[in-house]
Structures are given as C-alpha cells and as structure tokens.
Amino acid sequence: MPEDIKIYCGCMERVRHHVSVADTVFAGKINTGSEELNSELIFLHLRKALEEMAFSSLAANREKYSAARAQFATDWRAKGMLKHVAKVNPQFWPIPVTGPQEVAPGNKHFDRVTDGFLTQDEFVVLYDAASVLALHTRNPYASADDAVDLKYSVDGWSARIKALLSLHCVKLVDVHGLWVVRVGNGGPVEALTAVTDGDFVVEPAQ
Length: 206
Known about the structure:
alpha+beta, six-stranded antiparallel beta barrel
C-alpha cells in the first residue's frame, strides 16, 4: 500500500478509536465517578477524532503537507484548521458512499450518501463545542445563556461521524484519481487507489 494511504488509514483507525472511547464513556461502560469529568473525557476524544480527520486529509498531497501542518498545528479554531487543509486540497472533505455495485468487469458504482453524515459546517460546530467542554472550566458565575449549544446528542454526533467515514472516497490533489476507504467496526482500515469516470463509477488504478 502506498505510504500516503497508510498514513491516511492510520489516521482513520485513530478516529475510530477516539469515537469508540467517547461511545464507551457515554454508554456508562467507563465511569470516572463524576458526570462533569465523564463529559470532559467524551468531548476530549471527539475533539481528537476531528483533528485526526483534518490531518488525514493532508495525506493526499505529501509535498504540501509540511507547510500546511505548521500552520494547522498553531491554529486552535476549527474554521482556521479547515482553511489550512483546503489550501492543500480544496476538495478534501470525504465523500460518503454506499455500495458498491459492479457495473462492468473491474468497474463498480457507488451511490453518494445524501444526508445523516457529518458536514464541514458541523465539524466546526462540534470542534468548537468540544474545545470548550473538554479544555475549559466553566465559570460558576456564568449565566445560563453561556451554555454550549451541542446541536446533537453525543450518540448523534458519533453516528454522523461514522456515517461520513464508514465507506468514503477521498479526492486527490493534482491527480486523476481517488481513494476508496472502508472504516469497519474493527480490524485494519481498508483502502484502494482508483480512478473515476465522473459519475462515481470507479475502477482500480493501473
């Protein structure tokens, strides 16, 4: 497997691990004995999962990685992070798909998932909320209006991340091709390099 895909798959495995820890704490299978500390642990791992997602996208172009990584590492705001990633690959966001269906020998068709997955805008919402909940202590004199709006429950966020990544395609930079990546519930993350005819009919790259 090419080195860049190995890096990407490693990031995906760590995303899966962080989300799994958040799920386990949310389900009460890990309990610190404090509801507040449980919440901090959940959102710390969700935040780290999002960071791994952003880093994984940089693997699509090794030459531009170093400069973007240097900027990314010092930016704690989600919008700034995604801005730096987009400079490397404007089409960096994973494309969730279902399938595949074989349409010809060696050619497979994937349908795009249309809803229920984590979007770029939701990445920003969750990252910013997780940063507040995991890293900052709430002022006890703060008003109720200062409460963080999560938009979804913890298991709702988890489900949207999984819906985005369980089977997805990654568009590469300056290359006519993509990666097809499967993130299962366990075991190694699977990926292959493919080319597309523009309608998400893909075939293995030569």
